[in-house]
Write a structure and sequence with these properties.
The chain is mostly helical. The protein has one domain. 12% of the residues are buried.
């Protein structure tokens, strides 16, 4: 998938699709760095699903700590 919308790329990446994002001065570009997709503006990429799983687990653990 090729898009100029961050919110279109996020779900596609999560569902294991190859994505390339187009644009300049994208304010939310840092979200891709965190999940290992920092090359999204340079070439089509796919997520490392193991890393994504680890990020999900980290988020769940963090929420458990602050909510329980």
């Amino acid at each position: 998938m090729y898009s100029d919308r961050v919110h279109a790329c996020i779900p596609a990446l999560v569902f294991d699709k190859e994505i390339m994002l187009f644009g300049k001065n994208i304010p939310k570009i840092q979200i891709f760095d965190r999940i290992g997709a920092n090359q999204i503006l340079k070439e089509p990429i796919e997520l490392n699903m193991v890393r994504l799983g680890q990020e999900k687990s980290n988020q769940i653990n963090f929420l458990k700590q602050i909510l329980i």
